[in-house]
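Backbones bend. Shown next:

***
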Amino acid sequence: MHGGLPGIAGRYAETSAAALVAAARVEPTDLIGTQGRVLSVADFLSTLTVEAAVHHLDLVVRLDRPGPAAGPLAEVRRVLEGLLGGPLPARWDDATSARRGTGREPLTDQDRAELGASAAAFPLFG
């Protein structure tokens, strides 16, 4: 149906390239509509980056392939910290932050103790 992973990857790369070309023609503060919502171009690009990085992590759980690059993972962490309203544990690397912040990996007892009342907000998004 989709041509397997190579087909999906090719279509995703093409769509991503088109989004970047379109984004370069507008201001980051310009507003766009997508999926029934209105957001800035900057927030739209952040959303695409976060979705791609998190789903990339999902894929490499069972594949012997490298995970997302540092830049996209740092953006995931930035967004999660914004949703939390404060920093995630400093001992978490960005991949751990992404997995735990989205509920793909459970919080440990140590995490809950460190996060305190903020632990109840997890997952920050799923």
Summary: The beta strands are 31-34, 37-40. The longest strand covers residues 31-34.
